[in-house]
Structures are given as C-alpha cells and as structure tokens.
Design goal:
The chain has 308 residues and is an alpha+beta fold. It folds into two domains: 169 residues, Peroxisomal Thiolase, Chain A, domain 1; 134 residues, 3-Layer(aba) Sandwich (Peroxisomal Thiolase, Chain A, domain 1), CATH 3.40.47. A hairpin with a 5-residue loop joins strand 10 and strand 11.
C-alpha cells in the first residue's frame, strides 16, 4: 500500500519583516506576536513560478534520500491554485523541468489549505488502483502573486514555499482513513476574483475553523478507532498563531502536541502541513500523527498518518 516515504521542502529565501510594517497597517508589535505569530514572511523572486518552487523542493528531497529513490517515477501531482499559467497544468511543467520520463501520469489538484490531505488520498488511491509504486506529490501556492500588499489581512500572513512528498509502497507512514467536508456557502470568505487581488474575511475563516475543525478531528479519530490520547502529534494547517492556540484550547489538547512553526516564513497554504511534517518524519516517538487542513472553499480535511 502506498504511503509517505520522505519529504523535501523549499521556503523562499527573501524575508520581509512584519514588525517593520506595523505603522503601515496600523497594528502593534503585540498584534504581530500574539495574534498572527508571524515575524516575517518568505517571498520568492518575481521571476519564479510555482513550478520553480516545486523543483527547489525536489532538490531538497533528493538530498534526503538514496540516489536511486527518485528513479522511475510513475506518478506526479501538483496541488496548486496558482500555477505558472492558466494552462497547461503545472504538473506537466514540473515533469519537464525534472526530466521525468513521459511514462508518468501527471495532473494537478486545485485546492488550497486543505489540499495536502485531499491530495494524499487522491494520490494513494490513484497509485494503488493503477499498480504504481513510486510517485511525487508537490504542493506549491505562491500567494505573493495575488495578495494586496496594502491589505493587512493577507500581506502579514502568507509566505511562499513548496513541498515534495515521495510516495512509495515502502513508506515510513501509512495513510489511514480520511474525513472531508466542504461549506461552499462560505466560498467568498477567501476569494480571488478575475482582475482583483486576494480578499479574505479573517473573522469568517476563524469562526469556520473554531466550529468545524474540532468536529472533524473527532470524526477522524472515530473513523480510525483512536482516542485523542493515541495521537502523538496534531499537525493543523498553519494558518496563524491565534487560530492554532484557540483550536488547541477548544479541543483540550496538550500544547506540545499542537506545534506552531511558521513564525519566520508565514502561512504557505497547501505546503504548511508537509513542511511541518518534515520536522517530525525521523522522530520515531511520533507513531500516530493527525493532520488537518482547512481554508479556501471553505474546505476541510483530516486524516491519520501511522508510522510503520
């Protein structure tokens, strides 16, 4: 059965300090530290595209695995809502840049903050059904291309990054049962209209998360016959410190089991969970990890990763 073998990631090298933008946005240093929790955001070079960030994440992955581990890739998927072009699909561009054989299934998935969880299940199902043994799942959503730098709701929040997850039939983590929900009635809370910049209703998304994340986490635990006490780590989408802190309190979880890791680079959308997961991939005391993504759509997804 297909699962997660390794992860590489890339965070854009330029850092823009949020603390230097307090006057511009009419906020305090305490607001940055306690509510957003993001001291600086990562910004890609203007010429870089989503596919370039994927290639950089792949290069990091290649340093973490044996030389032969990335041979004979049979499957490639890119989860993004901000690809290089309206068409073709970003996966075809990444395949070309990496020189992967044409004997490779390649497609995109258009999802945001819940995208990693969804994409893992889609990729696993596709690979299992087709008898494929080795694949790559990329997440890359460079929001710097669509945010309004005069809008504090987004300018202080999003950073550019990407992740590359190696999926094989000899994984470190098996993917267990997932649960998924969508509230399309709330789609305007996070939206990028034609010829406009990204618009976000932060309060609406906060309320959505506070109501729906605890409920879905409970459903996910039940679907996998687990209790909260059985989970060693809850990797929630790294939206903001305020959301993570409040979810931790609402679900009555131990704070050390709910990390907040994006202080130096920001919310990387669909890449936030795999970038965080990379930090725990080799920590063998983390046997069961619950992952939960929530945001654009408004969409939410949760699953459990079980170490072999």
């Amino acid at each position: 059965m297909i699962g997660i073998n390794s992860i590489g990631f890339h965070i854009a090298s330029e850092r823009i300090s949020n603390l230097e933008k307090t006057e511009k946005h009419g906020v305090t240093h305490d607001f940055i530290a306690e509510k957003i929790g993001i001291a600086s955001v990562a910004r890609k070079k203007s010429a870089e595209k989503a596919s370039d960030l994927c290639v950089s994440a792949y290069d990091d992955l290649a340093k973490r695995v044996d030389e032969s581990a990335l041979d004979d890739i049979e499957f490639l998927c890119v989860c993004t809502q901000n690809g290089d072009y309206h068409l073709p699909q970003a996966s075809a561009i990444v395949q070309s840049k990496l020189g992967i054989s044409k004997r490779c299934a390649a497609f995109d998935i258009s999802l945001g903050c819940s995208g990693y969880v969804y994409s893992l299940h889609i990729a696993k199902s596709f690979m299992d059904a087709c008898g494929l043994k080795k694949g790559l799942l990329f997440t890359s959503d460079p929001y710097s291309e669509i945010i309004d730098t005069n809008d504090k709701n987004t300018d202080l929040l999003f950073g550019d990054g990407a992740a590359a997850t190696l999926l094989t039939d000899n994984p470190v983590f098996d993917l267990c049962n997932g649960v998924f929900e969508t509230d399309g009635n709330m789609f305007e809370h996070l939206i990028k209209r034609d010829n406009e910049k990204l618009a976000m209703n932060g309060r609406g998304i906060f309320n959505f998360a506070m109501i729906n994340v605890p409920e879905l986490v409970t459903k996910c635990l039940k679907a996998n016959a687990l209790r909260k006490e059985d989970i060693d780590l809850f990797l929630l989408h790294q939206a903001s410190k305020y959301i993570i802190d409040n979810l931790c309190r609402r679900m009555k979880l131990e704070q050390e089991k709910v990390p907040f890791l994006i202080k130096e680079y920001g919310n990387t959308v669909s890449s936030s969970i795999p970038i965080a997961l990379r930090e725990y991939l080799d920590k063998t005391d983390k046997k069961n990890i619950l992952i939960c993504g929530f945001g654009v759509g408004l969409s939410i997804a949760a699953s459990v990763l079980r170490r072999r």
